[in-house]
Amino acid sequence: MAPQRHKGAGALDKTTALSPAPVPPRSRELYAALDLGTNSCRMLIAQPEGSGFHVVDSFSKSVQLGAGLEKTGRLSRGSMMRTIQALRICQQKLRRNKVRNMRLVATEACRRALNADEFIRRVQRDTGLRLDIIKPQEEARLAVISCAPLVSRSTENLLVVDIGGGSTELVWIDLKEVPKRERSKSIMRLHAGFTQALSDLPAARVVDWISVPLGVATLRDQFNDVEDDAARFALMSWFFEENLSDFAPYHDTQPQEKFQIVGTSGTVTTVAASHLGLKRYDRTKVDGLHMTTDQIDRVIRSYLALGPDGRRADPRIGQDRHALIMSGAAILQALMRCWPTDRLSVADRGLREGLLYAQMSAHGVLEDGGR
Question: Among 180, 219, 228, 245, who pairs with 153 as Cys (CB 3.0-4.6 Å)?
Answer without folding.
Answer: 180
